[in-house]
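Backbones bend. Shown next:

***
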Amino acid sequence: MTYEPIFLDEFNEVIQKIALFEDNPHVAVAVSGGADSIALMCLLNQWVKLKSGKLTVLIVDHQIRRESKNECKFVKKIADRKKIDCTILTWSGKKPKSKLMELARKKRYELILNYCKKYKILHLMIGHHFDDKLETFYMRSLRNGNIIGLSSIPWIREDSSLRIIRPFLNFPKERLIQTCKYFDYKWLDDPSNKNEKYERVRVRNEIKKLSENEI
């Protein structure tokens, strides 16, 4: 199957369907360095110019792996080159030995949400995509629960001061990779994405064995 990059017209059409914005919106985007978040940064950089708005890139350094500092610098270099406002948020202090990845995910959201509230940013974009949605659905379907849990990842989640928006939920990851390639944005591959000690990686490998019809 051949995958096409995502262009601004298509991206703008998706955003218009899922959310309304004020004039000159200030939007934050969480960027880890993977192809999904880099593609989102790329398209949002075009979109905010169309809307006469502002984009802020937020990177979190968990300080769990030695490479994390250089990975954050890698992303910031891309943002600086594109003249995008960029901030690195750091999780300092001692790290627990148990449930580290779960806590790291919570801490990442905490740092980003606190930054957005401090600077009165109303919209946070996240790069979750169709593959993530499929994996989440698959994992929840294996657990005992009710049908509501199968709704998987929502397009928008709101609280009193911020809404989290995921415009990529109907786009497969391969289209995000092609978007990065087309617009010449480099990205990083996280080695943990291949480590089968994590449930999501095991599920991802199981899904790869399914036929297109089963998916």
